[in-house]
Specification:
Aldehyde Dehydrogenase, Chain A, domain 1, alpha/beta, globular, single chain, binds nicotinamide-adenine-dinucleotide
Length: 461
């Protein structure tokens, strides 16, 4: 380790909770060398998928033993409310079990008749993989990459976000306890410079990145330069469309919180709410009432729905955007600044802007905070046009009393994930973005395909 340190600041108290050494270039070099050696010289990539799956099932058991710790660590590092953490943490072990089960069902090898002789199509591990993780959901985003990478037979170097190094270190402990051979799974807790060293390293075959679109664009360029494989899970500005016949209660119950889950610091947040002019007031009143009903406060309180944002820089960024919205002429109908009564902690009041034009910055840029734009439209065609008028295409939802109508609209939205009269996310379903929301897919069999190369091996008849 070098002389740099990672300082973890509690978003609740604004005090230092932990200081630890940051990985230096020499640590990154050693981690990549270990991963390369394990890929080239150990039998890990040549084990059968079922053999690797047996390690993965043990990792899932080790994660189960640490579920409470992992829940606490998430809240301590970035202030995720405990209720949200309860819903999501167990997904990590589930991802390992889901991909372990795929060892039996995935077509790692298939034989096809060819014009001359026959061909075996082999799906082989892509190689040494760099897994780069953001701070908002640091555990399940990591396990969503590490589990398919392990089943594929890859070795990996994880670079967690400097604000959330602990989840990856706990996972490393689970991997070691499960007996996974040395060098397969390596973690370097460090900042962006170390990440840059990692993505530029010619010994790294694949970069799997989740984070901001700006960083993703840079990473894609570096990878293109050396023709390294790359997948990108980036930002979003997703639209939730309420049709003129939509049931208000169904929408508020399934989507209101998803407009600002974890204080809006989730990539699939439904941050543009599209309401028909004919029912604008009824929808807006119900939405505002629902948001005002959510308890804002200490994320350790299980009743809290909306805690602080995760860092001082996030708070400043979100407050800036609220001012931008006001200057652009949008109308604050609830929230609009800090939360009264909180003298410390990075609290920003859940904020809804009405009278938003889709050309305003608050409707176009990812704010990554509890700020939502309500946009009115005249008819279905206009709603579709507004939803698609975005450089992003990550998520969305459509609500109508007529499911067929909602489904027809959903089919026309250029986005990788969309709910019809519901909102859901699942480890079995591919997740990823159209347009500037990303490249490639995670979860489901598609998530495994991202860690495989395809080889055609010809044989005589
Ligand atoms: P970020 O891009 O600043 O950082 C993400 C990770 O990349 C961190 O580990 C960071 O240290 C590293 N990094 C940054 N620049 C790098 C570089 N040049 N080379 C190598 N590594 C680099 O993003 P963030 O603020 O941590 O996360 C928030 C963003 O992540 C939001 O835009 C959000 O929408 C996105 N996100 C997307 C998904 C998805 O599945 N699409 C999921 C969660 C978060």
């Amino acid at each position: 380790m070098g002389s740099e340190r990672l300082d973890l600041i509690s978003p609740v108290t604004e005090e230092l909770t932990l200081s630890m050494p940051a990985g230096a270039d020499a640590d990154m070099d050693a981690a990549v060398a270990a991963a390369r050696r394990a890929f080239d010289a150990s039998d890990w990539p040549r084990l059968s998928p079922s053999e690797r799956a047996s390690y993965m099932l043990r990792i899932a058991d080790e994660l189960d033993k640490r579920t409470d710790l992992l829940k606490r660590v998430w809240t301590a590092q970035v202030g995720a409310p405990q209720f949200f953490v309860e819903l999501s943490t167990e997904m990590a072990a589930a991802q390992f079990r889901y991909y372990a089960a795929m060892a039996e069902s995935y077509p790692f090898e298939e034989e096809r008749p060819a014009t001359h002789g026959k061909v075996k199509v082999l799906r082989e591990p892509v190689g040494v993989s760099a897994l780069i993780i953001p701070w908002n959901t640091p555990l399940v985003l990591l396990t969503g990459k590490a589990a398919p990478a392990m089943l594929a037979g890859c070795t990996m170097v994880v670079k967690p976000s400097p604000e959330t190094p602990l989840d990856a270190l706990i996972l490393a402990e689970c991997v070691a306890a499960a007996g996974v051979p040395a060098g397969v799974f390596n973690v370097v807790p460090a900042g962006r410079e170390a990440g840059n060293t990692l993505i530029s390293d010619p010994r790294v075959d694949k970069v799997s990145f989740t984070g901001s679109t700006d960083a993703g664009r840079h990473i894609a360029k570096v990878c293109a330069d050396r023709v390294a494989r790359v997948s990108l899970e980036l930002g979003g500005k997703s639209a939730s469309i309420l049709c003129d016949d939509a049931d208000i209660d169904t929408w508020t119950q399934s989507v209101a919180l998803m407009t600002m889950p974890f204080s809006g610091q989730i990539c699939f947040s439904q941050t543009r709410v599209l309401v028909p002019q004919s029912r604008h007031d009824a929808f807006l009143d119900a939405y505002v009432a629902q948001i005002e009903n959510f308890k804002v406060g200490d994320p350790w309180d299980p009743e809290t729905f909306i805690g602080p944002v995760s860092m001082a820089r996030q708070r400043d960024r979100v407050l800036d955007y609220i001012e931008v919205g006001r200057r652009e002429g949008a109308k604050v109908v609830t929230g609009g600044g800090k939360v009264p009564g909180f003298n410390r902690g990075y609290y920003v009041a859940p904020t809804i802007f009405d009278s938003v034009d889709n050309n305003m910055r608050i409707a176009r840029e990812e704010i990554f905070g509890p700020v939502v734009s309500v946009i009115s439209y005249a008819d279905d065609e206009e709603a579709i046009a507004i939803a698609n008028d975005s450089e992003y295409g990550l998520s969305g939802s459509v609500f109508s009393a007529d499911t067929a109508r909602a489904e027809q609209i959903a089919r026309r939205i250029r986005t990788g994930h969309i709910g019809v009269n519901c909102f859901n996310i699942d480890i079995t379903a591919p997740f990823g973005g159209y347009k500037k929301s990303g490249l490639g897919r995670e979860a489901g069999p598609e998530g495994l395909a991202g860690f495989l190369e395809t080889k055609s091996m010809f044989l005589p008849a």
